[in-house]
Design a protein that fits this description.
The chain has six helices and no strands. By secondary structure, it is mainly α. The chain has one domain (13-133). It is globular and about 50 Å long. The termini are far apart.
Length: 145
């Protein structure tokens, strides 16, 4: 007999409120910052915003053991989730496709994925260095002695 999976437990109201508040702050920050960024192509500001958000997620990933889970909900799911934007990214891709700029759209996708991943890894590396967190494969200087 196969046991039925239970539905996921509902999120506590405090978690929902933190994600809501962080998301609102992140979205507002994006809308204030994006117009100030250099834009040789109309999609560049959102690419830069998404890369910065990826860096932040990488940084916060390293600090996850040091932060109360509420901070993770507020900053990762909320602020970084609101600051970055897949919907705007998709809208820009559709705009490029509708105007026949398919190669530019494919380049945009490649840049977004590559730079987003590199930014997350860079965020992790910077956080490890600043906060003295050892890499799983390399001990810190104090652990080696």
């Amino acid at each position: 007999m196969v046991e039925a999976e239970l539905p996921p437990a509902p999120r506590p109201a405090i978690v929902l409120a933190l994600v809501f508040l962080g998301g609102a702050a992140g979205s507002l920050a994006r809308e204030l910052l994006a117009p100030l960024l250099p834009a040789p192509w109309f999609w560049v500001p959102i690419l830069l915003v998404n890369v910065v958000a990826s860096f932040g997620v990488g940084w916060l990933f390293i600090l996850r053991q040091r932060l109360h889970p509420y901070w993770t909900h507020l900053l990762v799911g909320g602020f970084c989730g609101g600051f970055s934007t897949f919907s705007h990214f998709s809208y820009e891709l559709v705009t490029l496709g509708d105007t026949g700029r398919v190669l530019e759209a494919l380049g945009y996708v490649a840049l977004a994925v590559v730079f987003g991943l590199l930014a997350a890894v860079a965020g992790e590396a910077c956080a490890r260095r600043v906060h003295g967190v050892a890499s799983p494969s390399r001990p810190t200087a104090t652990e080696r002695s």
